[in-house]
Amino acid sequence: MPRLADDDKDVETTLKRKVKNERTNLFEWVKYKCLLHGPDLLLDPCDLDDALPATYRIALDKVHSVQTKAGSRFEIAHTTASHGSRVREEFMAPTPQHCSRWVASLQAKVLRAQADVAETPAMTRSMATLSASPAMAHARRHERMQVASTTPLDLDKLDGMLSVIEATSPKLAKSWGSVRPASTKSIPDDEPPKQPTLHHEVDEQLKPTLHHEGNETPLARRWTASEHDASEQLDILVRVETALKQLELDNKAALSRETELRQELANAHDAMRLASAETQELATQLREVATERDEWKLVARQKQDEVTQLRDELQIAKDEVRLLTNEQLRLAHRNRDLAVHVQRLDTLVYGKF
Prior knowledge:
Elements: E1 11-20, E2 27-37, E3 40-45, E4 56-59, E5 63-68, E6 73-79, E7 86-92, H1 96-132, H2 134-144, H3 155-168, H4 170-176, H5 197-206, H6 218-352
Antiparallel strand pairs: 1-2, 1-7, 2-3, 3-4, 5-6, 6-7
Helix pairs in contact: 1-6, 2-6, 3-4
């Protein structure tokens, strides 16, 4: 299982990688043997297939982000070395615990690899600057040298030493008289770039007497100007190195902030997808409720039609009852009339006898 103990210990386990099948044009999960080895993540397919390459390599310094997904899945966003395009690889671990360990291991490895890559160009630029400017290197060497004795050196003794140098080294004597500040000094083409060791000994003895008041010579004044110019160049170099270090720190902070923002953006995307799924589910439920409401409306309309029909039938029945009642009254009235006529007839008939 992945561990964060040492860099030289390889972490090996089996993960499933989401791969698109060329034949079916569908995505499927393929088992890979994953190995964190140095600055790379190596993937070897467990089941050898002609359609898949033997080994797939992901450079950790090209990885942009490592994000966890739902369940035991995580995603790696990186730039391919062959095409230079940005791709996303999705992996599945056996359990969520394995997924968490893998994500922690990959994030630690990625940060370490990116830090190494960020430090290498800065060191290269600093070394190139120092090697490309002999005057700056000479000024730095003079700055680091310390004088063992603070007693001023006699200028007559210095002139004698310079005479010995001119007699023993003609080439050095030729260039010694043309000493100018480092910003305006020109070196002849036939002069070797490296100066003799005796020149450094003279520098060590000459440094305490550059600012000696009252007995300055033109040579001492020229050396004082050269030392001031070298000190200024050294200050510029120190400021440049400080600015580079500050830029490196700002770059690391920006990378960390970018990683945090990417994680927040991924979380926001996940929350948005979850909210979209919930919205779709609510919309489905709303459609079902609307369909049920329409069905109930149809049933209510049918019942209302039935009630209307019953009311019509009831009204018809009431009308028929009223007609029957009127008919009964008419018949009763007629019966009374007939009874009166019968009585009269009886009176007439029985009255004669």
